[in-house]
Amino acid sequence: MSKLLYRIGKTAYDKPWAFIVSWVLIMGIVIAMLGINGMSVSSEMKIDGTESQKVLDKLEQELPEASGGQASVLFTAPEGERLDTPERIALITEAVNKVYEQEYVINPAELAAAAGATLSGQDGQGAAQGDAAAGAGAAQGTDAAAGAGAAQGADAAAGAAASAPAELPPYMPLMVNGMPVPGVLIATDGSIALFQFQFTVQQNSLPAGVTDSVVEAVTEPLEGTGITPLPSDSLKAVEVPIGVNEVYGLILAAIVLVMTLGSLVAAGLPIITALFGVGIGVGGAFAFSNFVTMTSFTPVLALMIGLAVGIDYALFIVNRQRRLIFDQGLTAREAAARAVGTAGSAVFFAGLTVIIALCGLLVIGISFLSMMAIVASITVFLSVLIALTLLPALLGLVGERICSKKSHEKNRSKTNSHGFSNGWIKGIVKFRWLVIIAVIAILGAAAIPAAKMELGIPSGASANLDTSARQSYDAISAGFGEGFNGPLLIVAEANSGTIAPEALGGIAQEIGKNENVSVVSPVGMNKDGNIAILSLIPKTGPTDTETKDLVTELRAADSAIAQNYDVTLGVTGFTAINIDMSSRLAEVFPTYIGVIVVLSLIILLLVFRSILVPIKATVGFLLSVLATFGITTAIFQWGWSSELFGVDTGGPLMSFIPILVTGILYGLAMDYQVFLVSSMRESYVHGHHGRESVIHGYNHASRVVVAAAVIMVAVFAGFVMTHDIMIKQIGFALALGILIDAFFVRMALVPAVMALFGDKAWWLPKWLDRLLPNLDVEGDKLIAELHAKEEEHPGKVVKVASKSH
């Protein structure tokens, strides 16, 4: 491997324009494809095979008009005023009618007429409650509750009336000339009104501009009237949550690079190569986004990881080249080739570990996670490829200027003590037992909150107070009840025969007896009469434990309702999909961890040719990831010091954060393991033994590893400042995880354990040593070959100094 990379590095250095132009052309092709195809992202997080998704799939087949996406608009009056004045009721009615005139929006009046029924034939209160239950969840911008609004007027007349609540609700239908306005409820105090409606298809299937037309239709009649319309998030265009905040991370990374490398020219190269990597990787993903379903998180994750590893990998190679120039007096050309051959080998295997950790997500079988893993893996692969080809080409253009005269003078004036790092590692070695115990105790204590970690999909309840999502959630909770923010859709399927109208009414009454049910309303049936739809409003919010328990109880096959009426009850909606997602991820998590750990242990075994080192690396990672989840839980769920990170209210962590962050952190943590411990092994191979090899290797690798860790933390921390709570949580967990793993585990625990075992850390059974291929990550074969060539042809090869610096 090192010999091949050495030749690639020298070729790229000698013929820089061929490599540079090639990568520029690739970037140009990606930009052209992006211009032709455009870009599209979706908010859909679909998990095939779950109970809630099966319900939606059945509805799409049996009752397609009930499977379209939903949306809502909340109307608010100025403080101290009411909406139920004749003038304002007329304005709201006009806005509602304009929405119903839009293409792809279902008009319940027309649907009722087509079914031979009229809205006047409905029980006003029950119909209104059914309408509300069918669509209130859209106020939080999720399509998960896709369901019943299309059948509001027609099928409800099949014969079953809504179950009456135990007490009068704090809302009523909006009435005009004694008739309810379809889909609109108004709070009894007149301060707010809620309008729910349904599309003929899911939001991600709507043509471009449809939702914009709907928002314009509902807002235009209300301009200057004092009525404020708040469209649900499902009516807003899905945006990639990337802004100027990420630039701050890059600026800090640039500062660290300048401080580490001591040269603006040298510091600029890692930034350039990293931008090339993410430009091609993320740009290429966007170029194909019209042909595959891609969530808004997909490019963000690729950008996060691509920037971090792209900068770090280039830093390792550039730093190695400069050290070869300073320490061995090599020319920039020879040093660049050898840096690619030695540090480049470590870059290759570090990148491979990250890719394996990401690709482990594919075994889960969740489409949106698989897409995230594929795009991020391709971006990491491009970052490695660019570091091994484009970077040496750029070094060829820079030439000897990679080390300025000032840096040469500064290097000559340095002593061999390595300053702070030497004192630090000697202290670690001396007090190794104390360090091991302290790190385990500190990280163990930090991990305690992880035992109380709650998973879900952040909703309006956990959004910041100044967001429309939070304001809408609070207003709906105050005016209609918190359960309106997370309605459930119940599908009753007859095990045999059909469901009679009176049986449907009985099912609704039985469900309504549950203490956590606020309103349950039959909405309609399919043409065959064997599938009925009911809408249910819980008394509690979408992320409350009581609501989750209600879903579990309704789904129970042995429930009294299912047995008495010979039906199978299916449940979907925001909360139901949330429960299913968390359950599915919990089921596959052990398999996922097993796959990435086994594969990564094999790679580390090949790289380090040791039994202890891979095991130690994995145990240290488990400590750091548990501590990461503990602190993340304390801040984002419990609200400890959350204001420092721009979070107003605590809430559940995103359900796929544990599996996503674990995989990414494992790959990135192994990067530092590879670069730090490979330096210790290099020292051991070249004559340093016991604790001396740990100190010597640490001194030569610690500075660049610390710089790389700070850069990676800075890049991830830039995403903490975004407004999107999901991206904020991911960015924080990754930044914190790298901080803990790099400085507590790799820079303290690892050398302490290595010093504890001494030369025994490199023990490998002889039979296994013979079986394992020698990957030559340290470049021993390469150096030996160069020595031999110099002895055969003195003067033709740059003089090689002793490998031990």
From TrEMBL:
GO terms for molecular function: transmembrane transporter activity. InterPro entries: Acrflvin-R (IPR001036), MMPL_dom (IPR004869), Mycobact_MmpL (IPR050545), SSD (IPR000731). SUPFAM superfamilies: Multidrug efflux transporter AcrB transmembrane domain. Keywords: Cell membrane, Membrane, Transmembrane, Transmembrane helix. The keyword Ribonucleoprotein does not apply. It is found in: Cell membrane. Residues 264-397 form the SSD domain. The chain crosses the membrane at residues 16-36, 247-280, 300-318, 339-366, 372-398, 431-451, 589-608, 620-640, 652-672, 701-720, 732-757. Its main location: membrane. Pfam families: MMPL. It is a multi-pass membrane protein. The keyword Transmembrane applies. One of its GO terms (cellular component) is plasma membrane. This is MMPL family transporter. It comes from Paenibacillus soyae. The lineage of its organism: Bacteria, Bacillati, Bacillota, Bacilli, Bacillales.
